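Figure caption, in words: inputs first, then the predicted bound structure.
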Amino acid sequence: MTDKTYPPTDAMAATAHADKVTYDAMYAHSIADPDGFWRDEGQRLDWITPYTRVKNTSFAAGNIDIRWFEDGTLNVAANCIDRHLATRGDQTAIIWEPDDPNQGAEHITYRQLHADVSCFANVLKAMGVGRGDRVVIYLPMIPQAAYAMLACARIGAIHSVVFAGFSADALAARVNGSAAKVVITADEAPRGGKNTPLKINADKAFDKITTDTAMLVVRRTGGAVAMKDGRDHWLHEMEGQVGNDCPPEPMNAEDPLFILYTSGSTGQPKGVVHCTGGYLVYAAMTHQYTFDYHDGDVFWCTADVGWVTGHSYIVYGPLANGATTVMFEGVPTWPDAGRFWQVCAKHKVNQFYTAPTAIRALMGKGEGFVAGHDLSALKVLGTVGEPINPEAWHWYNDVVGLGRVPIVDTWWQTETGGHLLTPLPGATTTKPGSATLPFFGITPVVLEPETGREIATTEAEGVLCITDSWPGQMRTIWGDHDRFEQTYFTQYPGMFFSGDGCRRDADGYYWITGRVDDVINVSGHRMGTAEVESALVAHRAVNEAAVVGYPHDIKGQGIYAYVSLMAGEAPTEALRKELSEFVRGEIGPIAKPDLIQFAPGLPKTRSGKIMRRILRKIAENDFGALGDTSTLAEPEVVDDLIANRMNRV
Ligand code: WTA
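Bound structure (WTA present):
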């Protein structure tokens, strides 16, 4: 590890939207006068009714109320499509790169996008969907996923995208949670050369869906599927029955745009709600500045639309900016570990945005897969999802960027809508592993975890909070505003608590150290340990389960489950497999435990609270310093856990 720093090149500083002087001045303005700053920035969108009020936000206990541009009206789809038609109707809006490299990419122009989204919106209307209704989108990475999102936005319906890797049970919970009128799915989802039977998963989900919900099915592979009369409809058949004319619905800036479920430290996933105006202003602005996006550039974010990264940086941010955005159906390692670079070269990608876990996986396959692809179009490389370790950073910098392309390490969350801490390519000197400095309008503070006191010195280590609102902030948890307040605003009253720990160095740079709650980060996917635990205890053989994260070379964190069995159940290898598969069925492949340790008992305090600190240490194979175990009800269970630990590296 070196402490070498990486200043922007002169060329980048000269052409970028912001150099250091501009960043400093704009940041200062955004903090001193948020109203004035965002009043101007809001103008990047087309408003039907112009706003007169800009910021009206409160983080006060009992009154968490966040509104931006609250008297303005606009339509998100019109901002992402219609307003570009006059100037860039024939420009490619979406480049769709299918799973199979031999299938050939599709280039969808803004004009085609307009027709397809309008038609899709009319199909939804014909199915009875209107303003404020919920639509669940359970699709592979195909253009129809973007059409579906934009079609909802066009008619004022609220979409809730469910990652296609989630199981039928997880899908059912999300459909029931929002009482969705329609679930949009596809026959099959091709990924890495294999087809997932998405429609069959959706059918299984419908066994548990208790709401009055119809299904709209996209034909992707043509694989045979059963259609249920009266409930299921083919998109292509419905499209034949409606026209392409669908005027965009004027929406209030504070009308919900989407719900996106994400994991927390307790209970079931919560439906994060983002609204129309502020979210789009923030997604568009961060997309432009963080990636230094310029007209004509080709932008590729490799995330899935099932995550917030796909919402903000495949669909909404880029399209609001009139960009060309790449949508990729496949995986980084199929047909081989050169796929990302082959696609970058093929489409002359200018900005490339991925997760550290993907970089580590590709790094392990060797440099040979990068060499031979012409990556000279690359101008900016980005990462998101977890802290990037210096080895991966240097590989990204040296092997992919050949030392000439700036890296932006962007820290943000589903809750934040867009980047909160990030370098800007023409402004910020980077340090490998640091998300560097706040974006415009963001006021981070580091607090002492126990007391909540702000650490005022430049160098600080503690928990990361944000003291004031920004336009992209989530507004509430769907159907549970109290939980919103409880989760984010009560631990440190008056502030938004991120759930992350961080360090601030002598230069004021932020270094995210990871979650301080019971959320783990597996391959850049957020997972509540409580969710995996409740899946495990739903199995007949399981008496109790406790789940923690442990360091994993590729995934960042792996899932380590301690399981105590019901009396009479034998701790066999077969059962271990069965439990793993069971969790996969309950939540999805990403939740499958990497290691399962059968334990006669879990370490508990005398009041019955599981001591996770001890379980984490043992999972990390660091049991020399377990700290104080004197409060344990049965100290001897710890000896058994250590003796039979599963991670010995
Ligand atoms: C983590 C993803 C370090 C963090 C956009 C956060 C990061 C959680 C970074 C949110 C980063 C995201 N460096 N950690 N650059 N980006 N994280 O909601 O722990 O899926 O709280 O949003 O990912 O995950 P989420």
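The chain has a mean pLDDT of 96.
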